[in-house]
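Fold this complex.
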Amino acid sequence: MNQFQVPNPGASRRTRIAIIGLMTLFGVLTVAFFRLQVLESNTYELRSDSNRLRPFPIAAPRGAVFDRTGRVVASSVPGYSLHVFPSATSGVMETTLERLQSYLDLDDARIELLLERARREPYQPLLVEGDADFDLVSTLEEHRAELPNVVVRMDPKRRYQAARAVSHLMGYVGEVTADELEQEQYSEYSQGMTVGKEGVERQYEARLQGKRGLRYSEVDALGRVVSSPFGQVVEAPEPGVDIHLNLDLDLMEWIHHIFPDSMRGAVVALDVEDGGVLALYSAPTFDPNSFVGGIEPDQWASLNSDPEQPLFNRAVVGRYAPGSTWKLAVAAIGLKLGLVEANEYMPRGCSGAMFVGSARFRCWEESGHGALNLVQAIQHSCNVYFYQLGLRIGLERLLANANEMGFARQCGIDLPRESPGVFPSDLGFWEERFGYRAVETEVLSLAIGQGPNDQTPLGIAQFYLAMARGGQAPAPRILHGEEAGDTWDIGISTEQGEVLMEGLRRVFMPGGTAHLSSVEHWELLGKSGTAQNAQDPQRSHAWFAAMAGPREEQPEIVVVVLVELGESGSIVAAPLAAKSADYFLRKRYGIPTDTIQTLREHLMTGTPARWANW
Amino acid sequence: MKTLFSRWALDSRLILALLALSLFGVAMIYSTGQLNVPSPVVEGAWIRQLVWFVFGLTAFTVITRISTNWIEWVAVPAYVLAVVLLAVTLVVGTGRGTATGVTSFLQFGGFQFQPAEVAKIATILAVARLMASRVEAPGHGSRRSWQLADVIAPCALVGLPLLLVLLQPDLGTAMAFVGILIAVLFWSGIPLTYLFLLVSPAIALILSFNTWLFSAYMVALIGLLYLRRSRLYTFEYVAVLVFNLAVGTVARLLWDSLAPYQQNRVLVFLDPGLDPRQAGYHLVQSKVAIGSGGLTGKGFTLGTQKRFNFLPEQHTDFIFAVIGEEFGFVGTLLVLSGFAYVLLRLIRMATGAGSHFASFVLFGIFGAWITHVFVNTGMTVGLVPVTGIPLPFISYGGSFLLMCWVAAALAVRVARRD
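Structure:
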């Protein structure tokens, strides 16, 4: 066997070189690690933190909404959402969902849907319930041990009082959409934030939103949130600003209560003093609370496909032929132009119809009204009188004056999506819309509120508000305390206004179309309307525009009621308007509201109504 | 007085250090399983590593009881078998884990292993036998003058398995073969000039990407050849020059003529474990992990780069980055010291070995391990390019850990004078 000689001079030289080489290599490594871990560690610590920590916004509680009496309309309450965190082990998601079945309503189809979503996004926390109540959350907390990967997240959540009554006025909230994020007003927003979608929630979004806070959550290399969804709060959110509305929530609830369940329509009530919106109701309605935490797709689909269109705001967006309620506009134009005097009788008395050329134009009263002056014509809503007045004004002048009054404009209410009225701007309208030249007799249908004239219930309310205020009115306001200047001017004198008011007053008097809708304590003025429409030629829309106040005094409230296919303004719409106004005034003057009855109801129940002017 | 441990370990100091490194490795693999993100791949890996560690110790116990003569005898058949296995692997091998594009595993029933790991040890034994029979031990006895041609046989012996591994293609393991070759040649006492001339084409290849550097290098090379002209045959002289020039110019031209996607393909071919676009990402995340560890680290299992999966290959090739993140500079220094101690010990053992064969085996193992340790730790901080090469005794990998312990067993066995 070869034996080395020890010591071996040559070997010891190579050994020395090897050791020096080894030390050099390890020296280089040590220097490299020293540089990285000691000299530059601050830089890398920062990069490590920014690697794993991502900022996430914390939703600020939305500002509360109060009505004129300080009642809460909408508030922010703690909301809870349930998430299941993904696990590395297969089957955990399935068993967790199965266990959750005993605590919340999860049918097998829903579980299949959730598992499908979990498969699509295997690393994201799975949202199981967007709006869990507190009882469920506390039950789950008790069973923490068997549900280790279920996480409860708390976010402020919107809660509406009298939700169904205020749905169209308040709107609802929902997650900001991709389209919205591209708009200028949402430049500060980010995905996942809750924003006002309709109504007041959308209109006053900027005030209600508040300032979101910021927290950091840990993410992995692919940006998936992996630690607690609560994260570390860096900036606490600032709650949104509370707002006060002109609304009377009690009145809204009352209207929701008295409006027939099976009917579609709208009610608008305005404060005569400042144009404040006391009530704005549209039926059928929906529950805005169901949108909180994300509305279920099937619920959303059924709301959208419902032929009754519960999401459609009939008070502000819906447009209807105004019918006889619009005769007051014709009367106002006639007075303004000096074409008619208050006590002047039209040359032709009403015989139930009138011939213009060879065509016969009917009055709704087949037996005729006989000879009438303006006040009587308003009281009886006589078509023949207004045909003649319309002809006297002439088509062109009628168009010009009605446009000037604002029947083709928006009222300027502080709500999104308000529809302007539809009214021909000039004679060209007929050619454009219908393809023929307007003939002078077009003025006949316009004069009784038919023809190409569609107004929102809000628009009609605005017109009656102007009359109640002697000719001018501000834009209707929902938000309390910010009064707009007068934007609506009928352009009549005080005396001329008095004439119109007298006509409206007589509508509630014996012989007037709404006499049976009069109520005990208040003086009511108003005008019914029964408007033919394309929806159903057999059944007309029922209108009623009312004003009410203490007797011998100025009216304090204007109420406009529209009932789709209600057939009769005086029978269906008038009592709703009268009882709405009655409720509001009783509350204002401290009279109990549990005895509200119209004259008709007194007669039908046989209770005496000594106050009625027989 | 010999304790039971030292009777078992044969070399208590070396084996104690290796045991510590192995156990630390198991602990670090346990740590890489502690994540905040679901990752079933590393789940329970530490238990498997522990099982393989026990296998390794068993193999160690058996091998240390074998006679050195038999080890010397088995070198040639083992080498032949290893080369055959490598060739077979190229045909029927499978990839595994992240390196699915590589055919480096052979399957026997439910059992998979990497023939390259066996080949490394077999090659060390074979080349040690060759050197022991052909050359004098370093500086020993009557010195025959060295000729460049003397390196051809060892180069061929190591070159064959190296080539087969490169074809898998597994650049990391191939580098270990280079380490073995250079170490053994160095230990055989070959003049350092020759060693330099041997690796000069590789240097030419690297420098060829800068014309000025390459020109300066060529001038220096010609100067060196002129000084050493008396010890070189003319054909050797010319061969070295031509080879350097060819590599430096043709390689450059060839590379430039390739489209970027083709260049990428070459890079991917050289190391399919990484997508070239991702290589930068790996290095950045590794540096962030190590740098953010600071002086004392984030604490065992608490590394955030690791926990949130920013680190690639964290239980295998980049496990040292996890060590750096969780134990800081103190931790990296301790582990590096551990390896330095082991390598130093191998040099000492090689120096004092009882035979040429033993000495070359020990220094061959030194060559393999120092390559693994330097390239693996160096790539985590960007000192060397990122290549898939594991850290001995620490990285996850069953057959790799087993073969590390087989190598350790051979080391302490041959070092023992009977």
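Chain A touches chain B through 53 residues (CB under 8 Å).
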